[in-house]
Amino acid sequence: MANLTNALQQLREERKQAESQIHKLDTAISVLQGLVGQNGSTPASTGNGQRRVVSAAARQRMAAAQRARRAREQKKTPTGSANRQRRASSRRTLSPAARRRIAAAQKARWAKFRAQRTKKAA
Questions:
Q1: What is the pTM of this model?
Q2: Spans in the chain with pLDDT lower than 70
Q3: Using CA of residue 26, residue 31, residue 34, residue 40, what is the dihedral sign?
């Protein structure tokens, strides 16, 4: 019985030591987080809901850069209805005879598949 009491007391002491280490680690983490926030090297969105502060001049530069990117993209590829018309006109249409040949070939493939399936089942 004394051994169990000693073991229990030892476990409680180890738990106290672990709790004090966790407290020290939490303190160190909070201090480091405070330092990161002061020197301006925080990420765009931190885990605690705070957002990066961007000056008005920086926002204007970012907007100008985005407009320039969009202008470059519009020069590269046409967009809108002109692009859709170009794609639609480049597609070829099948003649009715070609459609009939394709349908007949597909029916033959399915007939062959069904015949093999019934052979395996029997």
A1: 0.30
A2: 37-49, 77-89
A3: negative
